[in-house]
Design a protein that fits this description.
Blueprint lengths: L15 H7 L25 H18 L7 E5 L1 H10 L9 E5 L7 H8 L7 H9 L22 H7 L2 H10 L5 E8 L7 H10 L5 E11 L8 H19 L7 E2 L1
Parallel strand pairs: 1-2, 2-3, 3-4, 4-5
Length: 257
């Protein structure tokens, strides 16, 4: 998906750009490299490590013309959360306030990845929605209307790189040295996210000053497009405020929730 994920048309009052701006934050939604205005990038620039360099350049450009205060808090979803973890462990990761995200974990659910590998062309549109999004009733009317402009072709490099994520996750998480908050939807179809797995994921961010994991009731994989978007985004902004206090010198002891 492109940047419209964070500013969907179905009910704009639920979405992060609207809520964040109303709360007094500058909010920037980026097309990830390889999507939107940067579709067609060379394959090597679509790898996550290269995407991280490009995003830091984009943030630097944004800071030239906008007040960024104490710095940036990342909010990533799904593959964008993977990118956020790369950013958090980057050489410049310490410049960030914190990392919030949803829709990605440590291990894929085997039955879901097998279903995708077998192909989805034979699925009805409704079955495909349930596979990729979760129960349709979790989303406002109009979310699935054709022509929304949210979904774009996935770069081939990204499809190949996705398979290596479970092996790469431990080292990537261990390199993150900013506060982390990860949310998993109640109806998450893609990732193993039972209690033991959430504890293991939190433990992987061993160098982070704080790690929070949460479950979002009444949500499917694409939390920010569903009815649960409002409570999720409010919780993300509350986390951002905690990170801001920490950056200003209020540094609580390391804790794991």
């Amino acid at each position: 998906m492109n940047a419209a994920y964070f500013h969907g048309e179905a009910l704009p009052e639920l979405f992060l750009l609207t809520i964040g701006a109303a709360a007094g934050w500058n909010v920037l939604a980026l097309d990830r490299p390889g999507y939107g205005a940067s579709a067609g990038l060379p394959a090597e620039l679509c790898l996550l490590r290269a995407q991280a360099d490009l995003v830091f350049r984009a943030l630097d450009t944004f800071a030239l013309s906008h007040d960024v205060g104490a710095g940036f808090l990342l909010c990533g979803h799904s593959y964008g959360l993977k990118l956020s973890i790369h950013l958090g462990g980057h050489a410049r990761g310490g410049e960030l306030l914190g990392l919030d995200g949803s829709g990605a974990g440590r291990r894929y659910r085997p039955e879901r990845t097998r279903r995708v590998a077998e192909g989805t062309r034979q699925l009805s549109r409704q079955d495909a929605i349930r596979l990729f999004w979760g129960p349709p009733e979790l989303y406002p009317p109009g979310t699935f209307r054709p022509g929304r402009g949210l979904i774009e072709p996935v770069p081939a490099t990204e499809n190949r790189e996705a398979a290596a994520w479970p092996d790469e996750f431990p080292a990537l998480a261990a390199a993150v040295r900013i506060p982390v908050r990860l949310t998993f939807a109640e109806h998450e179809n893609w990732w193993v996210c039972d209690d033991a797995e959430l504890a293991a994921i939190a433990g992987a961010f061993a160098a982070a000053p704080s790690v929070e994991t949460a479950r979002q009731p009444g949500a499917g994989h694409n939390i920010s497009l569903g009815w649960a978007a409002l409570p999720y985004h409010l919780a993300a902004l509350a986390f951002a405020e905690r990170c801001l206090l920490r950056a200003r010198g209020d540094t609580p002891p390391k804790e794991t929730w």
